[in-house]
Design goal:
single chain, alpha/beta, Peroxisomal Thiolase, Chain A, domain 1, 2 domains, 9-stranded mixed sheet, 11 strands, 20% strand
Length: 334
């Protein structure tokens, strides 16, 4: 990837954490159902909506990047779940409360891979229209009665939060050296029932994603192989663009899935050392919908873990299925 695309800033706004012990004592969680996830706590927003959290993250990212709303040429807001109102443009809200501006503000819906898809769209937009700066935000709040963070998605416990990255063609602390998305739409029906409903949650609430339709159709081994193949293709192509080997990556920002899924989808098949990943942090905040990758990158910045010359891989996966791999070269101390 020869064109210059940079990450000028990365930020996350995460609410207070609720531990598994606290959730169990109050009857929210059943330890027997979630112990295998390895999740110790999740971020829970008591009052702020998803778009409000996105605004807070975006304001911080814009300040860090020294970018004003008038400097933006595109705003993309990615999410996986309800944004607080029906038939309402959350991206326009984010734009308004980040200072306004007249650039396109567009919502991206690609489930848990939405943030990474939006990053790829932003990079392509800036190149195609020769524009310098874009803002990508994500935010999700997983709350009852529509979604039960402890039960709706087996093997994954969801957390709340907003994230943002400022994408630039001029400058930044990290240069995007590879970015690839792979899709396998033959697996999309694994996240739905056979019947289409007439209204949100008409099929029942809270949402239940515990479907075994793909296992019954394909068998466990074939399903695992297809999921691994999609992620492997994304990794291989992104590494080829960046001219690096996967094993040479310094940091891996991975989805905040449960431990079983992390082992099956990342640690074991790709030989990724958990100590070189964001897993120890991810198990404290939960799966942030579309925002795991940007929040994980922001966490590495906060910890001071990123050093010039290092490489960092952002890995995304979402129902559909889509897989995205982005490889960053750290070129300055964030």
């Amino acid at each position: 990837m020869s064109d210059g695309i940079y990450i000028a800033a990365a930020s996350a706004w995460l609410p207070e954490r609720l531990t598994l012990d606290e959730a169990e004592r109050t009857g929210l969680a059943d330890r027997a159902r979630v112990w295998n996830t390895g999740i110790e706590s999740v971020c829970v927003s008591a009052d702020k909506s998803a778009p409000e959290m996105a605004v807070l993250a975006a304001q911080d990212a814009l300040t860090r990047a020294e970018v004003g709303p008038e400097d933006l040429h595109l705003l993309l807001h990615a999410c996986a779940y309800h944004q607080g109102h029906d038939m309402w443009p959350a991206a326009s809200y984010v734009q308004r409360f980040c200072g306004g501006g007249s650039c396109p503000a567009v919502e991206v819906r690609q489930m848990s891979n939405g943030g990474m898809i939006a990053l790829e769209l932003a990079a392509g937009y800036l190149r195609a229209y020769d524009r310098p700066t874009a803002l990508v935000t994500t935010a999700d709040r997983f709350s009852l009665p529509g979604f039960d963070r402890w039960r709706s998605d087996p093997s994954t416990v969801c957390g709340d939060g907003g994230t943002a990255v400022v994408v630039s063609t001029r400058t930044g602390f990290a240069r995007l050296r590879g970015l690839v998305t792979v899709s396998d739409s033959g697996l999309e029906h694994g996240s739905r029932s056979e019947r289409f409903s007439d209204a949100p949650l008409a099929a029942g609430a809270p949402i239940d994603l515990n479907s075994d339709s793909l296992v019954r159709e394909l068998g466990v081994e074939l399903l695992i192989n297809r999921i691994e193949a999609g992620q492997r293709e994304a990794f291989d192509r992104a590494c080829a663009q960046a001219d690096v080997k996967l094993s040479d990556i310094d940091w891996y920002v991975l989805p905040n899935l449960g431990r079983t899924r992390m082992r099956a989808q990342y640690f074991d098949p790709f030989g990724i050392d958990p100590q070189r990943s964001t897993w120890s942090w991810g198990r404290q905040v939960g799966h942030l919908g579309a925002g795991d990758q940007f929040a994980g990158l922001a966490q590495l910045v906060t910890e001071g873990a990123l050093e010039p010359g290092q490489t960092c891989l952002l890995a995304g996966v979402g129902a559909g299925f889509t897989w995205t791999a982005g490889i960053l070269e750290i070129i300055a101390t964030p």
